[in-house]
Amino acid sequence: MSQINAEQMARVKATAPVLAEHGPTITRHFYRRMFARHPELKNLFNQTHQTTGSQPETLARAVYAYAANIDNLGALGGAVSRIAHKHASLNIRPEHYPIVGENLLASIVEVLGDAVDADTLEAWRAAYGQLAQILIGVEANLYVGAAWTGFRPFKVTRKVRESDEITSFYLTPADGGAAPSFEPGQYVTVKRFVGDLGVDQPRQYSLSDAPHGKWLRISVKREAGKPEVIPAGKVSTLMHDGVEEGAIVEVTAPMGDFSLKRGVETPVVLLSGGVGLTPMVSMASALIADGSKREVRFVHACREGAVHAFRDWINDVAHRNANVTRTVLYERVGLNDRPGVDHDLEGRLTPAHIECYAFVPDADYYICGPIAFMKAQRDSLIALGVAPERVHTEIFGSGALE
């Protein structure tokens, strides 16, 4: 792969506005083209996100961001690290990059036609080569540090219903070995064969317990979807309906750069929406297991009591540990929901709630939930004067915080 020079950087940067306009068209074409020529790669990509168009849109935004900052990659922040962790969790390898590059460059030409001259195309070839080299290097280090590479068989030793939507799966290595350590907040990829698609499908799930060597626990939300808008979750449905105790599932090593800072004394604020509480449960569990006396505020918002997972667990943690407080909001409060026990507040999490229940000077803030939820809470915290580097977010699926 060729090195990019200053003139080529300028050409790539100059095309950023074109990508902003035509990016989704290019990326949709790219995925269709690549899958037609390399159907085996469907196993690496969420095909539901292809159907909804969210994955092409996410890729278009990422390509635009790279083009706009080609001369100052530091402006991309932690994006490279986050992408590399996702890739390593999916077992993306160096040999995949030339395939992606070939089809992406061809798609640019096939969509934009005569608007792309030979020098501009060569500049993009060099730019892609630079990005591929960066990611391959970061991913190589992640593979070296991983507990294993590729997919490893795990046995489901327990299956526990946590709410109407969320079920936990306790996973132990099928070979009888110890469960690996990990950083609280990390995730694993689980692979299941989806019959109506005819391919394996990977899904990433946060680990929802402290690292202790006994098991890995994932807590999976059944994705119901929305008729004629978003298809129901294929893998989550298979997990809920087709994976019972004793089953074997294929799992990758823990990955992810959204993780709890340990070995410090700063307060911890955990902000979650819906199933976004799963990494927060892992973080809180680890703090308790470590015997930490750090102040912990656990603030969780969900639609209603029926979908409130880990309610009794967090209540018990807050009762037993004076340094832990919990605040729960239900968007809809039912007749049988007990104030102060099941929930504390009614409605959605607002900036006023953040200031009252979540704002702690010098704390580290961890946020996980739907994209709009995370953006709102991040913006509220920054408006209160929280330094951006103290606000940590986790994004699953296709999407980005703008």
UniProtKB/TrEMBL annotation:
Database matches in Pfam families: Globin, NAD_binding_1
Gene giving rise to this polypeptide: hmpA
PANTHER family documented for this protein: FLAVOHEMOPROTEIN, NITRIC OXIDE DIOXYGENASE
Reactions performed catalytically: 2 nitric oxide + NADPH + 2 O2 = 2 nitrate + NADP(+) + H(+); 2 nitric oxide + NADH + 2 O2 = 2 nitrate + NAD(+) + H(+)
Domain named Globin: residues: 3-140
GO MF terms, alphabetically ordered: FAD binding; heme binding; metal ion binding; nitric oxide dioxygenase NAD(P)H activity; oxygen binding; oxygen carrier activity
Family: Belongs to the globin family. Two-domain flavohemoproteins subfamily. In the C-terminal section; belongs to the flavoprotein pyridine nucleotide cytochrome reductase family.
Enzyme type, top EC level: oxidoreductase
Lineage top rank: taxon: Bacteria
Secretion signal, residue range per the UniProt entry: none
Alphabetized CDD domains for the sequence: FHb-globin, flavohem_like_fad_nad_binding
General function of this protein: Is involved in NO detoxification in an aerobic process, termed nitric oxide dioxygenase (NOD) reaction that utilizes O(2) and NAD(P)H to convert NO to nitrate, which protects the bacterium from various noxious nitrogen compounds. Therefore, plays a central role in the inducible response to nitrosative stress.
GO process annotations (BP): cellular response to nitrosative stress; nitric oxide catabolic process; response to toxic substance
Cofactor entry: heme b; FAD
InterPro entries per the UniProt record, alphabetical: FAD-bd_FR_type, FNR_nucleotide-bd, Globin, Globin-like_sf, Globin/Proto, OxRdtase_FAD/NAD-bd, Riboflavin_synthase-like_b-brl
UniProt name for this protein: Flavohemoprotein
Organism, scientific name: Paraburkholderia panacisoli
Domain FAD-binding FR-type: 149-261
Keywords on record: Detoxification, FAD, Flavoprotein, Heme, Iron, Metal-binding, NAD, NADP, Oxidoreductase, Oxygen transport, Transport
EC code: 1.14.12.17
